[in-house]
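USER:
Try writing one entry.

ASSISTANT:
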Amino acid sequence: MHCSRCGAALPSAPPSVCAACGYHVYVNARPTSGLIIVRDDRFLALLRAREPRAGLWELPGGFCDGVEHPADAAVREAREELGVDVVLGELVGMYLGTYDYQDETLPVLDCIYLASLPSGASITLDLEEAAAMTWLPIAAPPAMAFGTMDRALEDAQKLLVR
């Protein structure tokens, strides 16, 4: 690893301090937003169309842009992936995980929200993102593409029965 400020070799993997310029180097989790869109006792699952983990079920969502608030990112991602403006509900939780991208394992902080579809909403999938969609029982979900989604679904079940 090298210092992102001066390019000198770092004495150790981050967190580290560059010996050449004194810059403190950290590896921070990238923020993402996801949605558990609920209808009755089911949630909307998408079949991943691309790597990593193509062919596995996931929740709609993605990376936050710059200083975009995770709630705003969740609404934007639903618009991009599903073609709808969701009704955003409460934050289910924040979950630390990883995402493999460009031959690197990135730490991520997944912010997962409950959501619903407005009455009469019609979903139009972005086929570059999702090969298919289905409504799955929230009480018995399959293993999801990312462990953070599994944990969020468990927590969402608890929120929904209170």
Notes: Residues 147-160 form the longest helix (14 residues). The longest strand covers residues 87-101. The chain has one domain: 28-160. The chain has a mean pLDDT of 96.
